[in-house]
Amino acid sequence: MLEVIKNRRCIRTYLNKRVEEEKIIEVIKAGMQAPSSKNASPWEFIIVDDSELLEKLSTTHHRSVHVKNAPICIVVLANKDKFIKAGKWIQDLGACTENLLLESVNQGLGACWVGVFPKKKLVNKVRETLNIPENLIPYALIPIGYSEEKNIFIDKFDEDKIHRNKFNI
After folding, report:
1. All domains in the chain, ordered by first residue
2. 3-state DSSP of the chain
3. Distance between CA atoms of residues 18 and 102, nearest Å
4. CB–CB of 67/114 below 8 Å?
5. What distance, in Å, lies between the first and last C-alpha atoms of the chain?
6. What is the DSSP pairing of strand 72-79 with strand 43-48?
7. Crossing angle of helices 88-106/21-32, nearest 10°?
8. In angstroms, rounded to a whole number, what is the distance separating the alpha carbons of residues 159 and 163?
9. Do 151 and 7 form a contact (C-beta atoms < 8 A)?
10. Residue 33: which residues within 8 A CB-CB, separation 6 or more?
11. What is the pTM of this model?
12. What pLDDT is recorded for position 164?
C-alpha cells in the first residue's frame, strides 16, 4: 500500500479505453471504507460515463477541462440526511475521496481530484448538470481512466515541516 500512496499523482490524460465495471466498483468500495465521524458514512456517488454529461462537467471550472476526455467520472456527493455532527462531513468526504484516488492507482488507473465544494457556483453547476436533489451536495469530481502518464514517486518529504511538542520558531 505504501507504493500506491507514494505513486499517487493527479493524472489528467486518458486513453480511449473503457474502464472495467469491476475496477469501478473496487474504487467505490475503497471510498466507502473511509473513516467518518460517528460512522455516519455521509457519501453517495454518481458514475458518469455519458460523453455529453462528461463534456458538460468539464465546463464546471477552468481546472475541470480534462473531465471530458475521461471514460468515467465519479461524482462524490455528501448526503445531508446523514450529517450527525455539524461540519464533520467535509473531513469524511475528504477521506473518502482520497481512498477513491488511492484505489484508482491500485487498479492501474489514473485519476484526479477536481474540487467542487465549497464554491456555490461550482456546486450549483454540477447539481444542475446531473439533476442532483437538494439533500445531496456535490463535493468533488474524480475523472478516472487508463493513461500513458505514469504515477511516479516524487519525494515530498520535508523535515522542516515536522515539529515536536511545540512549534519551532
Report:
1. 2-147 (3.40.109.10)
2. CHHHHHHCCECCCCCCCCCCHHHHHHHHHHHHCCCCHHHCCCEEEEEECCHHHHHHHCCCCCCCHHHHHCCEEEEEEEEHHHCCCCCHHHHHHHHHHHHHHHHHHHCCCEECCEECCCCHHHHHHHHHHHCCCCCEEEEEEEEEECCCCCCCCCCCCCHHHCCCCCCCC
3. 19
4. yes
5. 35
6. antiparallel
7. 140
8. 9
9. yes
10. 99
11. 0.94
12. 87
Bond preceding residue 118 cis, omega within 30 of 0: yes
User: Cα(34)–Cα(37) distance, rounded to whole angstroms?
Assistant: 10
In angstroms, the Cα distances linking 74 to 97, 158, 160 are 10, 32, 36
Which residues of the chain, if any, have pLDDT below 50? none
Contacts (Cβ under 8 Å, ≥6 apart) of 158: none
What is the predicted pLDDT for the residue at 169?
66
Cα separations in angstroms, 22 against 29, 41, 67: 10, 22, 21
Q: Rounded to whole angstroms, how far apart are CA atoms 46 and 23?
A: 15
Predicted confidence (pLDDT) per residue in 21-61, tens digit: 999 999 999 999 999 999 999 999 999 999 999 999 999 98
**Burial of residue 52, with CB atoms counted within 10 A of its CB: 0-12 exposed, 13-18 middle, 19 or more buried:** exposed
